[in-house]
Amino acid sequence: MSTKVLSDKKLDITEVFQSIQGEGHYSGIPCSFIRLTGCNLLCKWCDTTYAYKNGESLEINDIINEINIFNNELVEITGGEPLLQDNVYDLIDYLHQNNNRVLLETNGSLFIDRVPEYVHIIMDIKTPSSGGYTEGYLKNLPIIKKTDEIKIVISNYNDFKWALNMCLDNNLFDYFEKPILVQPAFGILNEQDLAAWILDSKVFFKLGIQLHKYIFGEHVRGV
Q1: Do residues 24 and 179 touch, judged by C-beta distance below 8 A?
Q2: How far apart are CA 87 and CA 8, in angstroms?
Q3: Measured between alpha carbons, how far is 77 from 34 in angstroms, rounded to an integer?
Q4: What SS3 state is found at 203?
């Protein structure tokens, strides 16, 4: 990978690290992560509250150089909410030029129309009980790609029913190439209950778990 990147634009960064991808359809694959600082939703069960503020301002070329040390093709930009920072689009462009496969995890509340086609979007739609619920995701459903993915964190049966009805109402089961991912809120809902609800629903849901927490531990950062 090339390390020659010519950008002095800056982003507020909480951490840059590599790990085994713990969530979504790339779960289990080595991945580098760029966690941007700042969030606009502040969900009740957020496990990265440390990313809300106090990030370090880094130039994009320094971020790329850190990523190149890990030498992983797969790179995820996450947060917080990465689309809050306008320079994220420059970071995306440079990662693409750097021959990285770019994943972007967003909470869906901000318009994704500027995200390039080559980026794999993971839209983490918040349930009403999350404390971060917004209907902003509705404006993104008409433009999100069939190859992207939807993730919904579930804390109870009401969340599950809401997710089921939302997907049915918006025809999401037929639209996406990959199944809709439902993931238990860690430490709040057990996987067995969610699995039973999926089986009863008879729809194209996929059960997701936070694999990295089972490998490295619940409270370890940078994994």
Answers
A1: no
A2: 11
A3: 5
A4: coil
Helix (H, G, I), strand (E, B) or coil at 189: coil
pTM: 0.92
- Kindly report the CA angle at 115 between 114 and 118, in degrees rounded to 5? 140
Report the distance separating Cα 35 and Cα 41, nearest Å. Answer: 16
Span 55-95, pLDDT tens digits: 999 999 999 999 999 999 999 999 999 999 999 999 999 99
Q: What is the CATH number of the domain that holds 79?
A: 3.20.20.70
Give the count of domains, the chain.
1
In a domain, 200, yes or no: yes
The answer to the question of residue 223 being in a domain is no
Q: Are 180 and 205 in contact (CB under 8 A)?
A: yes
Report the Cα–Cα distance between both ends of the chain, in Å, rounded.
23
Q: What is the domain range of residue 144? A: 10-216
Residue 4 lies in a domain: no
Q: What average pLDDT does the structure give for the chain?
A: 92
| Residue 5 placed within a domain | no
Answer left, alpha or beta for residue 147, where phi above 0 means left and psi between -120 and 50 means alpha. Answer: alpha
CB-facing half-sphere around the CA of 138: CA atoms within 13 A:
8
How does pLDDT run across 172-186, given as a tens digit for each residue? 999 999 999 999 998
Note whether 77 and 103 are within 8 A (CB): yes
